[in-house]
């Protein structure tokens, strides 16, 4: 679990994160959503220790990352895996070497042990025959999987993913989302994901934090988000007419006005007032 208390972070005279309180739960996918520039990446970089906050606490199992000793910080960082936006693989290293990199940095294991672990995680992300390939030779979805394999190779307690679906088609995005979700549950990881992707929100959003101009504007889960009454959040998630219509349909379904096997012709010919009831 990670507890964030009154987190503030600015650059020069501009405050970007304006006092955020949040709890990231273990074994859950904790999603940070919000429009471009709302502060998601800055927030995540504070959480992993890449930015030093101006104020506030970031408690890893009750221990504050901001004030802990360098030794404790190093130990905490070892428990953190991160999937960067765009995967951030080393172009000159093979898939195998990319995934082995954190083991080279943080362990004194033998080459054979490291290779065994690399092969385990590559198999876990369904990338068995890609060891000797270079990043330029594999697809975007495969690169994300290599990024995930590298992020979990040290058995992290905490996993951070900044826009894991950027640049992927909806089906590949779903595969990546499901993989992150499975790993989170399987290893009881506290996972934090920055995303714009509404499919991800609906599929894996156990705990969702909506950021608006550096504030936490709303918090809930993927069941609550559909019927939320927050105007700002609604204009963010239902930005298209199509999604607004889909929400109306879902409302009618929940109210029992239509059923799942609805006959569209019947519905379209029915009293229009039904949509306003
Ligand atoms: N290193 C920096 N120095 C100065 N300002 C920064 C820095 N990093 C981010 N900012 C500013 O902080 C604000 C929030 O940026 P951030 O990257 O966190 O947004 P975001 O929500 O992640 O957006 P996106 O969805 O586009 O990734 C922006 O106004 C940005 O210009
Ligand atoms: Mg960002």
List the keywords.
277 residues, alpha/beta, Rossmann fold, 2 domains, six-stranded mixed beta sheet, four-stranded antiparallel beta sheet, 10 helices, globular, binds adenosine-5'-triphosphate, binds magnesium ion, nucleotide-binding
Summarize the structure.
The protein is an alpha/beta fold and 277 residues long.
Q: How are the elements arranged and paired?
A:
Blueprint: E1 2-11, E2 14-24, E3 29-33, H1 40-48, E4 55-60, E5 63-64, H2 70-78, E6 80-83, H3 95-106, H4 111-124, H5 140-152, E7 158-162, H6 170-186, E8 190-195, H7 198-204, E9 207-212, E10 215-220, H8 231-237, H9 241-254, H10 264-269
Parallel strand pairs: 3-8, 3-9, 6-7, 7-8
Antiparallel strand pairs: 1-2, 1-4, 4-5, 9-10
Helix pairs in contact: 3-4, 3-5, 4-5, 5-6, 6-7
Bound molecules: adenosine-5'-triphosphate and magnesium ion.
Structure description:
- The protein is of the alpha/beta class and 277 residues long.
- The protein folds into 2 domains: 2-229, P-loop containing nucleotide triphosphate hydrolases (Rossmann fold), CATH 3.40.50; 240-277, no CATH class.
- Helix content is 39%, strand content 22%.
- The chain contains 10 helices and 10 strands.
- It has a 6-stranded mixed β-sheet, sandwiched between helices. The chain has a 4-stranded antiparallel β-sheet with strand order 2-1-4-5, covered by helices on one side.
- Strand 4 (55-60) and strand 5 (63-64) form a beta hairpin.
- Helix 4 (111-124) packs across helix 5 (140-152), helix 5 (140-152) runs parallel beside helix 6 (170-186) and helix 6 runs parallel beside helix 7.
- It is globular and about 70 Å long.
- The model has no long low-confidence stretch (mean pLDDT 89).
- Magnesium ion (MG) is lined by residues 40-41, 194.
């Amino acid at each position: 679990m990670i507890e964030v208390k009154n987190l503030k972070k600015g650059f020069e005279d501009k405050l970007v994160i304006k006092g955020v309180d949040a709890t990231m739960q273990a074994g859950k996918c904790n999603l940070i959503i919000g429009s471009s520039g709302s502060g998601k990446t800055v927030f995540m970089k504070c959480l992993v220790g890449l930015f030093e906050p101006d104020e506030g606490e970031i408690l890893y199992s009750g221990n504050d990352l901001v004030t802990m000793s360098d030794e404790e910080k190093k130990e905490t960082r070892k428990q953190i895996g991160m999937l960067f936006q765009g995967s951030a693989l080393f172009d000159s290293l093979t898939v195998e070497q990319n995934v082995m990199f954190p083991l080279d940095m943080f362990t004194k294991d033998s080459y054979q042990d490291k290779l065994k672990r690399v092969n385990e995680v590559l198999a876990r992300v369904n990338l068995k025959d890609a060891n000797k390939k270079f990043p330029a030779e594999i697809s975007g979805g495969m690169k994300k999987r290599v990024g995930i394999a590298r992020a979990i190779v040290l058995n992290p307690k905490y996993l951070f993913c900044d826009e894991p679906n950027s640049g992927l088609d909806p089906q590949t995005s779903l595969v990546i989302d499901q993989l992150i979700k499975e790993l989170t549950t399987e290893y009881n990881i506290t996972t934090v994901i920055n995303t714009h992707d509404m499919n991800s929100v609906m599929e894996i959003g156990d705990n969702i934090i909506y950021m608006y101009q550096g504030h936490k504007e709303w918090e809930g889960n993927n069941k609550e988000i559909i019927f939320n009454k927050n105007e700002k959040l609604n204009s963010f998630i239902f930005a298209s007419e199509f999604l607004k219509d889909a929400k109306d349909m879902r409302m009618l379904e929940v109210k029992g006005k239509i059923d799942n096997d609805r006959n569209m012709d019947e519905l379209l010919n029915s009293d229009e007032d039904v949509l306003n009831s």
